[in-house]
Write a structure and sequence with these properties.
Blueprint: E1 4-20, E2 23-36, E3 41-46, H1 56-65, H2 72-75, H3 82-99, H4 103-106, E4 115-116, E5 119-121, H5 126-135, E6 141-145, H6 151-161, E7 166-170, H7 177-189, E8 192-196, E9 216-218, H8 228-231, E10 237-240, H9 242-245, H10 248-260, E11 264-267, H11 274-283, E12 289-290, E13 308-309, E14 312-313
Parallel strand pairs: 5-6, 6-7, 7-8, 8-9, 9-10, 10-11, 11-12
Antiparallel strand pairs: 1-2, 2-3, 4-14, 13-14
Helix pairs in contact: 1-3, 5-6, 10-11
Amino acid sequence: MPLTLTATPETFPMDGTFTISRGSRTEARVVTVAVTDGDHTGHGECVPYARYGETVESVIAQVEAAGPLETPRDAQTMPAGAARNAVDCALWDLEAKRSGEPVWQLLGLPEPQPVTTAYTLSLETPDTMRARAAENAHRPLLKIKLGGEGDLERLRAVRSGAPDATLIIDANEGWTPEIYAALAPELMSLGVAMVEQPLPAGEDEALRGMERPLPVCADEACHDRTSLPKLVGKYDMINIKLDKTGGLTEALALRDEAREMGFRIMVGCMVGTSLAMAPALLVAQGAEIVDLDGPLLLAKDRETPLVFAGSIVYPPVPALWG
């Protein structure tokens, strides 16, 4: 019998307010896709992102308009983005449930191991960020959301609160070339290891050939494999997110091609539940930086969540995904 595909909007409250340079939120709005053959059901999750012109409603419409689908390969006919991500991951989950074999085995990948994830501190006043850093000073890797005026003061506050953690920062397209050039040496002296997307994705040509003492990672500028040629000479690393690649299938292909081109790999996420992080853990194997802390930012997660031990996240059990 043909597969039945459903898309359901869900809301998960966040543990406080999460702020980046583009705004604040107190909840994560996701779309959960279920694919069933009548005997087995696979699930996937995506986070529609306004930055890419997506809404919950538009993503659900995309899913419902998808043609007949049987395998993850069929999902690749959909455009890259959040809708295809949820469908692709749900189809992989269904394949695993039908076969009784985990997705990593179906893909011929090594068995996934636990990884250490970054933990994100949202954009706040320096005093608030210092306090949040102190609360999480035991974590080995902190990701700091920045966005322009006052960023250096925020970083100094975070460093005083967490003197031993490695820091990476995410400007979310909020800087100019002049800000990067001025801040880079000082940030390195504070132990910052990398900056993510300092310039707007469409205005990043200034990075080409620029001396980059602080490594730069492409986020909004990198979606799938078609993005890679334009990133050469401008970025040192790429951030792979399944909501950008359009699912696990393309994310794995992007990772492999990017490595061949000399890029280092970061695997990140939107703010979603354990269901969204589970397939990304397969991509995160061997990545230089892993940022799959979405569930740690929520007040409520899935009924069968991923297991976190501090900043170490373990692969999912079949009841969750894969």
